[in-house]
Amino acid sequence: MQNLRALLSPLRAFDAVYRAKGVSRAAQLLHVTPGAVSQQIKQLETGLGVQLFQKAGREIELTAVGERLATRVCDAFDRLHEALGDLADSQREQRLRLKVPPSIAIRWLVPRLHGFHALHPDIALEIATIALADDVRLEGADCAIRHGMGEWADVELDHLFDDEFVPVCTPVLAEQFQEPSDLLRADLLHSMLRPQAWPLWLGSAGLLNTPSLPGIALANAALCYQAAADGLGVAMAQRAYVQDDLRTGRLVVAVDHVAKTELGYYLVCDPLKAATAPVRLFRDWIRSVR
After folding, report:
1. Is residue 30's pLDDT more than 80?
2. What is the pLDDT of residues 125-166, one digit of tens each?
3. Domain segments of the chain as ranges
4. Burial of 4 (0-12, 13-18, 19+ CB in 10 A)
5. The architecture CATH gives domain 93-290
6. Which residues are 60's β-sheet partners?
7. 4-92 has which fold?
């Protein structure tokens, strides 16, 4: 008998004829000509030294030997396909795809990711940012970070932190402020993604009827914090985003008042993917992050 490796291609053609129940249909499945399939069958019969097919009118049918071989070859190819599928699945399971609003990605998640990568260097992370913090969908992602009240019935979720707003600026600039009303004379930095942040904070501090607020509008919170660190003005910060800056003294709280809402940030995932190793390990890790 010929070497098995030399018979793999003929065996594939043989299996296709068995499954398709004919040479012409097998040729269509394999994207070759019927003559090429017939040639492969003839090579297999010669290599094995047995007759696998016999004439049946204009068609061919399996001999008894061919029938026994066909069922075993079909089972073998099915097992091979399953093994390759399992391998592909295991490889895919080592990838974790996240969708995150840009500010939380830049200011909170990415600076902490070295901890997860150190624990699980074999998991490849793909992080995509989206434009709207309130509209993070799971399509094409394993997990996402959403802003809201955590009332999503179609996902599993982990609470990350609540909305807590504080005004921040450089230590030098902060010397000018004592009371919340003092900030009305300052250059205020506004995030276009959270334009209500300053009115929210001022209202919670008792300044309910404030005039139009002066200042500079920037694309997102991350830019506001950078501008504040450069001395351009006072930014309204999500406190979780500026923890490192406050710890190092790069920024300070301008006036010691915190505005809170009922909203928070949550990691959400598809329940069908919650048991996969990358999602499970990431959720375990992120619950420990502060």
Report:
1. yes
2. 999 988 655 456 788 889 999 989 998 888 999 999 999 999
3. 4-92, 93-290
4. exposed
5. 3-Layer(aba) Sandwich (3.40)
6. 55
7. Arc Repressor Mutant, subunit A (1.10.10)
Q: Can you tell me the mean pLDDT for 70-86?
A: 83
Residue 110: the pLDDT is: 93
Query: What pTM was computed for the model?
Result: 0.65
